[in-house]
Amino acid sequence: MRQPLQLISLSIACGALWACSAADTHSPVETPGRPESAKTQLLEAGAATLQAKPPIEAINAYLDGFHFYNGHPDVQMEAHHYCSILNEDVIQCVIFDGNTKQAKIMGVEYIIDEKLFAGLPAKEKAMWHSHGFEVSSGQLIAPGIPQVAEHALMQRLAHTYGKTWHTWHTDQDKALPVGVPQLMMGFTADGQADPKMVEQRNQRLGVDSARTRAQRADIKIPPADAAADGWQHGNVIQLEDPTGAHLHHPAKATPPASNSRSSQ
């Protein structure tokens, strides 16, 4: 029986009280602009104290994985997901290019359970990617929580599909959010993800892929819906960029970090 997401969230929240912190992953670009003035900093501090932020406070899970541009499987990047669980079957995530205060919002991912996905039209399904392989391979991780809580979360995610749009392509050295949104996909088999990219992430966050795979061997991975992962069947959906700003250059993997750490 799959565990309710509320129980998983509780496990994550409780585990976070004593869980290890994850190593810093810094944004690969510096955004142009003037440094914050003292006035701006004062306004920022006042807003932080006085304004309620329910949608932000609802974020209760941090997932780290990898994406590639639909139609360009060789152009890959690491993606830091900060997610809120809306109900048993729907999760929404804000995707960043790092896990520090200076991280840039790259886009969003909507995650739905297989039952909801089954009811979508075939043309819609082609824009979604399955999560089964990301879970079984250990590519998708939840840094900083106890293994038992992560295992429960991955059991749920193995039965889900994600629809992801990136709006700021910092992996392409875009210092500003220029160009158009791009549809992203997830990996579905060994040999697709750049091993150097995965290994650098693993070293930085202290992940052992072989051990993670072994720990998840008991998770039953359902067959992916034949209409999902459309790129595998030649059904590539992507927005054309009229500005020519998006060139799809292979990204540089983030190197293993120093000893600086950030609590999650």
TrEMBL record:
<feature type="compositionally biased region" description="Low complexity">
    <location>
        <begin position="220"/>
        <end position="229"/>
    </location>
</feature>
<feature type="region of interest" description="Disordered">
    <location>
        <begin position="244"/>
        <end position="264"/>
    </location>
</feature>
<dbReference type="InterPro" id="IPR010686">
    <property type="entry name" value="OBAP-like"/>
</dbReference>
<keyword id="KW-0732">Signal</keyword>
<feature type="region of interest" description="Disordered">
    <location>
        <begin position="204"/>
        <end position="230"/>
    </location>
</feature>
<protein>
    <submittedName>
        <fullName>OBAP family protein</fullName>
    </submittedName>
</protein>
<dbReference type="Pfam" id="PF06884">
    <property type="entry name" value="DUF1264"/>
</dbReference>
<feature type="signal peptide">
    <location>
        <begin position="1"/>
        <end position="22"/>
    </location>
</feature>
